[in-house]
Amino acid sequence: MKNTLSSEQIALGIRRRVFEHCIKNNGAYLSQACSSAEQLAWLYNEALHLGDSIAPSVPEEFQGVPSSSNKNYKTGAGYNGPITKDYDRLIFAPAHYALVAYATLIEVGRMSEKGLSMFNKDGSSVEIIGAEHSPGMEMHNGTLGIGLSTAAGIAYGRKLNKEKGETCVFMSDGELQEGQIWEAIQVSVYYELDNLWAIIDVNEQQVDGAMADVLDIGDINKKINAFGAKCIEIDGHDINAMRQAKNENHIGKPLIILARTSPYKGMDFLKTRYPRLHYVRFKSEDERNKMNIEISKELGIEPIIY
Amino acid sequence: MTEIVNKPYGNSFKKYASQNKNILCLSGDLTSSCEVDTFRDEYPKQFVSMGMAEQNMMSFAGGLAMSGFIPFIHTFGVFAYRRPYDQLLASIAYPRRKVRIMGFLPGITTPAGMTHQAIEDIAVMRTIPNMTVIETGDATEVESVCEQADSIDGPVYCRILRGAVPRLFETPIKIGDIRILNSGSDILLITSGICTEEALRARAALLNAGISILHLHVHTFKPFKEEKILDLISNIKLGIITMENHLVNGGLGTTISEIISKHGLSKKLIKLGLKDTFAHGGSKQYLTKYYGFDAYALINSIEKFIGQKLNIEEKDLEKVRIEDVHSLSKAEAL
Description:
The structure holds two protein chains of two kinds. Chain A has ten helices and seven strands. By secondary structure, chain A is of the alpha/beta class. Chain A has one domain (7-56, 75-299): Rossmann fold (3-Layer(aba) Sandwich). In chain A, the strands form two sheets. Chain A has a five-stranded parallel sheet, with helices on both faces. The two termini of chain A are 34 Å apart. By secondary structure, chain B is of the alpha/beta class. Chain B is globular, with a radius of gyration of 19 Å. Chain B has helices spanning 8-17, 37-42, 54-66, 85-93, 121-126, 139-150, 194-200, 203-208, 230-235, 252-262, 284-290, 295-306; strands at residues 4-6, 23-27, 47-49, 70-76, 100-104, 132-135, 156-160, 164-166, 178-182, 187-192, 213-218, 220-222, 239-247, 269-274. In chain B, the strands form three sheets. Chain B has a seven-stranded mixed sheet, sandwiched between helices. A five-stranded mixed sheet of chain B has the order 9-11-10-13-14, sandwiched between helices. Chain B has a two-stranded antiparallel sheet with strand order 1-8. Chain B has twelve helices and 14 strands. At the A-B interface, helix 5 and helix 6 of A face helix 3 and helix 4 of B.
C-alpha cells in the first residue's frame, strides 16, 4: 500500500475521528486516542510490513462465534492483510482501544468510514471492546495480559518455521500489573525471541484513575531490562524516536519499546477530567458543549454538529 | 491375570508425536512426571519447556497453534484449568485452537492432596463450549488417546493415567463411543476412569449373587452420545449407579441425570464419587474407600436397589491392585 499521508497526519486524523465519535455519541475511549495516535499511525503507516487488507471495506455483520458448525467464521485479521511467512503479524493487546484501532484502519485506508457507524451497534462486528472478529483484531484481548504470551507463541512457531516476518504486540501499561505479562517476558527472553517486539502505550492510566494511585508498578524500564529483554524508553508522541527505537539492535532478545505518552495529548482541555480518563462520558450538556468548542479548536476543526 | 503396562502414555506419545514434526510437546515443569522425558531427550526440537507459568503456557500454546503447530500440553490436570482458566477460555477454547491438553493425576490418583487433585475438571471442561473431553480408563485407552485427541478439529482435554496401568480393553479408544463391558437387565452400572477397574473387582461376587448388571464404561464426556444409551436406561429394571473419580456433581453422574430428565425417563440414580467434598492426601485404595466410591461402596448401592443384603464381604472381592509408592514408573512419590 502506497503511503500518501505522513504518520503525523494520520495521527491527527485518528484524534479527530475519535473525538468526533465521542462528541456525537456522548462518550468514548477518548484519552486512548490522545496517548496512542502516533504509535498506531506509525505501526500501520511505517513500522509493520503488512499486505493490503483482504477483508471487506465495510465490515460484515457479526457472523457468529467459532464453533464446529460455523464454517464461515473469520477473525478481523484480514484488515491487516494476509497471514504469510514474510508479512508481520500484529497482536492488538488492549482491546479497550478498539475505537482507536478502527479509526486508524480508516485513516490508513483499510476500512470504510461506514465501519465506524457500526460501532457498538447490536449485530455488528465492530464491537466496543475489540473481539476476534472485529476489524484489525485476531484474538480476544478483552481479558488483559494474554496478548504478549500469545504473540510469544506465534513468534516461537515462526522461528521454528524460519519465517522472515516479525510478530508485534501493541500493548498498554495498565496490563503490566498482570502477572502473566512477566511470565511472557520471561519465556520470550529464555527462547531468545528476537522476532518478537512490543510497543507499550505508557499513559499511566487505568480504570480507577492514575496508575500511581491505583497500584504503582514502579520503574518498568528497569524491571523489563532486569528480566532480560531489550527495553527502550521514548517520547510516545515523537515518531522519529519510534523509528530509532525500532532500529535498535536486539539480537537474541525481544524488543520492548516504552512509549511515554500523555492521555490528553492534542486535546489539552481534557485535562479538566484528570485523573478519571479511562472512559470519557460528559457529565452535562454544558461540559459536552465546552469540550466540543475547545477541543475542536485544538484539533483545527469546526465544532462537531450533533 | 490383568496385564500391567508400564508408562503407556510416554511410549505411545513418543511413537505418535515423532511421526509429525508439527506436534510440539509442551511441559509445565512436569516432564518426567508426565512421562515425556524420553521424548524430550530424543526429540529436543519438538520439546518446549514452559516452566511453572501455566497462564503463559495456555496463551503461548494458542499462539503456537496460530502459527501452524499442534501443541500437546503436559501438566497435572489440576494445573490445566484452575490457575489458567481465563487463558484456557480466551486463548484456546473460544478460538478453537487445536491444542491437546493432557491432564495427569486425575481425581484422587495422587497422594498430594487438594492442590494436586483435579476433582472438578470434568465438570469445568464439559461446560466450556468447543471443548472435547476424554478420560482414559486403561492402558489401551492411554495408548490410543494421542491419535484420537489429535483427530479433533478443536481443543481437547484428556485425563491421563500414568505409571503402571492395567490393560482392561482390547480395542483402542474411539471418541464418542461407550463400551459395554457386561450385559444385564437389573442394574445399569456406568463407570469411568479408574472406577472401571475398581468396579470390575466386584464382578465375580455379583455374578455369584445372581445380580444381572449391565456395565458400561464411558471415556468421552463431550461429545456425549446419549442416543447410544437411551434404550439401555429405559429398559433397566431397578436403577442406575454411576461411579466416578470426580465430584458427583458435574461429571458422569450429572451427565446421566441430565439424560434421564431430558427424556423423561423415570429411573433412580445413585451417584458414587466425591460427594460435595474436597479430599485429602492418601493412597488410591484408601481414598476411594474413605470417600465411598470403591467396589464395596458399589455393593452397598446395589443392595439399596434390590432391598436386601447380598452378604458379600471385602474378602469376596478381587484383590485391590496396589501400586508401589516408589517405583521406576514414577518420577517422584506423588
